[in-house]
Amino acid sequence: MTVADILMLVSVICIWTLLLVNVVLIVAGYLYYMQIENKPVPPLQGEPPFVTIMVPAHNEGKVITQTVEALLALEYPHESYEIIVINDNSSDNSRVLLAGLQNKYPGRQLTIINTDAVTGGKGKSNALNLGFQQAKGELIAIYDADNTPEKKALLYLVSEITNDPTLGAVIGKFRTRNRDANLLTRFINVETLSFQWMAQAGRWKLFKLCTIPGTNFIMRREIVERIGGWDVKAIAEDTEISFRIYMMGYRIKFQPKAVTWEQEPQTVKVWFKQRTRWAKGNIYVIVKNIPLLFERSARNIRFDILYFLSIYFLLLTSLVMSDLLLILHALGYVTTTIAGFSSFLWVLAITLFVVGTFITLVTEKGEMRLSNLWIILLMYVSYCQMWMVVAAYGMYAYIKDLIYKREAKWYKTERF
């Protein structure tokens, strides 16, 4: 067996191991969806707790009015929640629009915090810390500035967390509001439903684990106080705070009936910038928490640490290695006797990907369309390959920031 054969064999084993893990998560997630489909959300017990909704916003003039008005329309007692918008060093018309909303709804608890380059402009985590200083709620909910939650979203989140004292946080689901804008947004819609939410559902079903998605979630105030707020160095503050919640002994539950709709990137440039930030942020959190693998108190999150390690390091390396070897073999630069077998596994992987992804979409109303089959197939050969570039560039950006000791910045996702 040649060196090329050994490298190819190792790559194929790694890829298929992670692929099968993902299949198991999708199957478990599907079972969880079927389990709760006709199961009502636990009713809210007693007096509704006071909730602070925080919305970090930087140059969000195109979407902020719609977001705030959706939050004001939530079916939750108006006297029992407040909204704090952190208008963080914006240079657009956000300040004027937010002031107009305060005048339009004078009887509502709507607070606007306007920062400048000195007090703000240092990222989402810093903005949330500024908002938390004025928060009065015993529960803290976070929504991104482009979100329009469904009216019962907050009620469902509060009901879940107040009915189970072991829960430190409850996450809802976000959907793609502009899914039909172009081919890219359709890819993102499929990715969100299949590889984010179905995997979240599977991890909850099997391990009682979830990762906070950054929006449409609620957590206990005491958690933020005990951990000293959000880590300002973590640009993936959602993953970071998830690990810290589990280290406290709490669980994070996924309630897919709590839905918010958000705007996704409509150009490859904006998508690449956003996903690179996610990749770099998750790599920071992974590296920071690797020591927890060896701590007995962290046994509940070992799966997540290993899972993220596998995705961002092992899978990326294996995909690049196998693709490179196949190309070099085709060009005659290297010889590998298992290239044909590897090609067969590649075709099998595509089939499994298409079928599995399509099945996950049937859990969503309006997504049971045969046209999704060709979208998924096209997605495999294009969008999924772009992910490798994103992950690799995220790694490069993380190392570069580490070398030059750069601070985390607010990477603004362009709105449309």
From TrEMBL:
Top-level taxonomic group: Bacteria
Q: Which UniProt keywords apply?
A: Glycosyltransferase, Membrane, Transferase, Transmembrane, Transmembrane helix
Q: Which Pfam families does its entry note?
A: Glyco_tranf_2_3 (PF13641)
Task: Enumerate the transmembrane spans.
Answer: 6-33, 305-331, 343-362, 374-399
* Entry annotated with the keyword Glycosyltransferase: yes
By its UniProt entry, which InterPro entries does this protein fall under?
Nucleotide-diphossugar_trans
UniProt record similarity statement: Belongs to the glycosyltransferase 2 family.
The name on file for this protein is: Glycosyltransferase family 2 protein
